[in-house]
Protein: Transcriptional regulator, GntR family
Organism: Tsukamurella tyrosinosolvens
Amino acid sequence: MNQTTGSLSERIADGIVEIVRTEELQPGDALASSRQLAERFGVTTPTVREALRRLEAIDVVRFRHGSGTYVGDGVRRRVIGNPHAPRGDLRAALELADARLALEPSIAALAARHRSDADLARLAAATDNALRPPAGVASPDLHFHVVLAQASGNRLLGETIESLLESRRLDQVEIRHQYADRPRDHAEHLGLVNAVRDRDEHLAESLARDHLQHIRNAVADALAAQEAGR
């Protein structure tokens, strides 16, 4: 554990992550109690709890009321979004749409090259999300574009898209409000699945670019209308 930089709770958080790694704990495995961790690090229990709250914010640990503290899925991620990102607006949503347009078409081509049968099954399961209107800020269990990135064969790309969409989930909800043609969204996703299934890299890249351009245009039109009305 690094003893020279960061606050005490940050250093304890680093130490807890090191325990997870050295003991090869997996998501869902139980951690020692706060009291036991405090004794191990020679600090107070409140300090350990502060460290655990830091880790909870990025899903490295999860609290289960009446049960204890467990390792979260975030422990595997190398790209972590800001859990306290400010609420966005149409301009922020357009920024997100532009970022996705720059990144995701080439990712779709990689998915067509490297996808597995399991990836195809998950993509097929995720296509119906397009037919559902956005509800609050909750993310779907299977986000189509995250699954597409995960099919690329590059874990870091999958984590990058997942982190981007999760950290900017309010902007993503705004995008879905503006790109509200659910049947069209669904049809474009199905076309991408077929291209990825057929390992047609060029078609997958082209379809992804067209799809994301449609999304970008819808947000840009909404922003222009908003600014014209001021």
